[in-house]
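Journal club side-thread
Mid-discussion, someone asked how the predicted structure for our own chain would compare to the paper's figures. Pasting it here so we can look after the session.
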Amino acid sequence: MTDSIRLDGRVAVVTGAAGVIGAATIRLLAARGARIVAIDRREPDLKSAIADLPASAEALAIAADVTDEDQVRAYVRSACERFGTIDVFFNNAGVEGEIKSITDYPLDAFRRVLDVNVVGVFLGLKHVLPVMLKQNRGSIINTASIAGLIGSPQIAVYSASKHAVIGLTKSAAWECTGTDVRVNCVCPGLIDSRMLSAIIEGRSGAHVPSDKIVDRVPARRLGQGSEVASIVAFLASDDASYVSGAAYTVDGGRTAA
């Protein structure tokens, strides 16, 4: 069957491109015809993430820190200089921070999580939105989390940062009123990844069997980065032309209760 969700020739900028979700997303967007600008702080991992992309992706890898406004401005400028525009922006970079109770959480660690997860998303919006508003088209997808929808012990700071991402998403969507620029976010649940392992081991102090982890997930399994990527690709496409200001859960039913 022909894939109806095509992104042929569109320019997609993806931050956090070397992570599980970011790497899965650049692969899928490239497979659907997009040209890729991959952003991550970790240059070796970034090069590995783009190594197998098709030649049609014309992949451009840029090592950048999303918390540094000069570097954000520079990656947006580089994308536009190389491809002339930005059609899709997956504002995805994020960190889990320390796994501690609020009373034990160091202030510098708190600020670091907000700097990456909130300031980084804000700066991406600040510098990509003008490009899209000028051309009166584009799709931005921010990465939030189910932690942005519910509370959770020992990751209160991460949860607070992801609540903020949802707020930024909804507000940005309103600021694009009357245009063809859409802003949405994805809220991944328990995705098989380094971040999930770090959170679980930080809480328990030991490895926890996967069957214990998924007891409260109706799907009874961990999600895959590719499953988040599929929602990102949908939101990036014309099939989602009437979708803006939405928070899409990709959580196997975890937040259904």
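Post-session note: Residues 11-190+224-250 form a domain with the Rossmann fold fold (CATH 3.40.50.720).
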